[in-house]
Amino acid sequence: MNGLDRPKKSWIEVPADSDFPIQNLPYGIFRTVSNPNPRACTIVGDQVVDLAVLDELSYFDQLDLPPGIFRQRYLNDFMALGKSKTAAFRNLLMQLLGEGQDELRAQAWHFLHPADKVELLLPVEVGDYTDFYSSMEHATNVGKMFRDPENALLPNWKHIPVGYHGRASSIVVSGTPVRRPKGQMLPPNAEQPVFGPSRLLDFELEMGFVIGQGNELGTSIATDRAEDHIFGLMLFNDWSARDIQKWEYVPLGPFLGKNFASSVSPWIVPLEALEPFRVQGPVQEPEVLPYLKYEGKRNFDIQLEVEIVAESGASAVVSRSNFKYMYWNMCQQLAHHTVNGCNMRTGDICASGTISGPERGSYGSMLEITWRGTQPVQMPDGTERKFLQDGDTVIMRGYAQKGDLRIGFGEVSGKILPAL
């Protein structure tokens, strides 16, 4: 099916400003009260589409998919089929859910579920997780605060996409509460560390990309082939305990200040859905080494926002940023990740690193927004935030828009519980 053949509307009603028109078709895993077995789904408007039932009704027979591919706990086996197969499936699904499919519409009661009646689960089994540090504005802000205002960026920053290996086991789906972590900290002007709950709990506004097909150990993925291995994108909140992080990170990097939780959105938006929103990335100077060079538009214009909702119900949007600001794009990140022969596997997640824009309102963490707590955020209930408080819920949202076309990610949220 070429672009001209693709339906512009679905026979499923799509409310105005919905994140999920037929041009999106993200993937997730869900269950219901009446059927607690996890299975694969997509969503159009406010209706979750049970892909397992559609498969059993023989609507996907022409693709010769493995039996039971949509009745699994995770999407990994489907993603591992490769881009040619998953793109063909997406085209068929778009045709089936497009207007004019009266036969399928008559059977909708078999496979449609109102979105507010389902439970969305973590959609991928994450084997490994890597967090990058690829926003120049964020890296510059942090460098000014913690190192040298005149030389904020480390000497290697404009030469390599800096990253670290995170903890896959503590990645949780949106809606999962996050317990305030405990650890060692060195209070200001103190000579000895103390132990206790983090006082400087923070969010980090990020996007994550999910690996579809990986590469063999000892091989690498070039920038011009990277998107063949990227199945889709998710919203990603990399919670951070700044006081624990500051004390422990020298000389090896993040550990307990990061590995207590990272939250992801339940929907994976396929890369194909984001084609209309490609943009040029920032000019990279000095010139990068040959293996990091790329052609074409590899950044994406995705609008992002972060809202803090206090336990009182008072809420404030504290950041409006954009994924297009990233200095290092996903193709460069994946090429660098594998240039030494590292093998990526289906379901691995690579996070962008905190996404910050050029001004305070577009910074992607409380560390930057409040400039290390010196410029607190005022909440509508009269309280203020230097960092996050117990009972706060952090909600991140993202969407791309061009004219009437809006492709969204839904949201990723998490409520902070007191330390045990």
Structure report:
The chain is of the alpha+beta class and 420 residues long. Helix content is 14%, strand content 27%. Strands 6, 7, 8, 13, 14, 16, 17 and 22 form an eight-stranded mixed beta sheet that branches. It is globular.
Furnish the topology, listing elements before pairings.
Elements: E1 28-31, E2 39-44, E3 47-50, H1 51-56, H2 76-79, H3 83-96, H4 102-106, E4 112-114, E5 119-121, E6 129-132, H5 136-146, E7 163-165, E8 171-173, E9 178-179, E10 182-185, E11 194-197, E12 201-202, E13 205-211, E14 230-237, E15 240-241, H6 242-248, E16 262-264, E17 269-270, E18 278-279, E19 299-300, E20 303-309, E21 315-322, H7 330-338, E22 349-351, H8 366-369, E23 377-378, E24 384-385, E25 393-402, E26 405-417
Parallel strand pairs: 6-22, 8-16, 9-26
Antiparallel strand pairs: 1-2, 1-5, 2-3, 3-4, 6-7, 10-11, 12-15, 13-14, 13-22, 14-16, 14-17, 18-19, 20-21, 20-25, 23-24, 25-26
CATH class of the largest domain: Alpha Beta
How many helices does DSSP assign?
8
State the low-pLDDT regions, or none: none
CATH fold annotation of the largest domain: Fumarylacetoacetate hydrolase, domain 2
CATH superfamily of the largest domain: Fumarylacetoacetase-like, C-terminal domain
Helix content: 10-25%
Termini separation (Å)?
A: 55 Å
Strand content: 25-35%
Largest sheet: 8 strands, mixed
- What is the radius of gyration? 22 Å
- Structure summary, number of beta strands: 26
Mean pLDDT rating: 96
Sheet/helix structural class? alpha+beta
What is the level-2 CATH architecture name of the largest domain?
Answer: Alpha-Beta Complex
